[in-house]
């Protein structure tokens, strides 16, 4: 992967951000991040740049949501975001499969993770 120092710092930052998540969500997120960074170790420069940009966007989003939760700006904290159809169309078949696996894992009945489309802020 291009710029291994930057990738390593981002990886550590994401795992650190996950510490603020509910335990089940943290566990799921940590496993996914570790797997994805491992999978992209040998990525070419263009793919590595895209990969890092998407994970930087993820880290910024999670940081913002954690900060909002700490300030009680939301009635109910919802982490992540809804993927648009346009974004999903950009995914390769392999990525769609990974997304399905992640969704299945996150929505298992024994997990205490709330999946909600309601991300409205308090007035």
TrEMBL record:
InterPro entries for this protein: SDHAF3/Sdh7
Location in or out of the cell: Mitochondrion matrix
Keywords: Chaperone, Mitochondrion, Transit peptide
Predominant cellular place of this UniProt entry's protein: mitochondrion
BP-aspect Gene Ontology terms: mitochondrial respiratory chain complex II assembly; succinate metabolic process
Similarity remark: Belongs to the complex I LYR family. SDHAF3 subfamily.
Subunit structure of this chain's protein: Interacts with the iron-sulfur protein subunit within the SDH catalytic dimer.
Protein name: Succinate dehydrogenase assembly factor 3
Species this chain originates from: Lepidothrix coronata
């Amino acid at each position: 992967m291009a710029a291994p120092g930057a990738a390593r710092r981002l990886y550590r930052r994401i795992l650190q951000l996950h510490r603020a998540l509910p335990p089940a969500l943290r566990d799921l997120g940590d496993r996914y991040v570790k797997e994805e960074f491992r999978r992209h170790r040998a990525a070419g420069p263009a793919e590595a740049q895209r990969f890092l940009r998407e994970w930087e966007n993820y880290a910024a989003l999670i940081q913002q949501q954690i900060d909002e939760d700490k300030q009680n700006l939301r009635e109910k904290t919802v982490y992540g975001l809804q993927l648009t159809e346009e974004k999903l169309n950009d995914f390769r078949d392999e990525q769609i499969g990974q997304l399905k696996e992640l969704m299945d894992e996150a929505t298992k009945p024994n997990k205490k993770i709330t999946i909600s489309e309601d991300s409205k802020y308090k007035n």
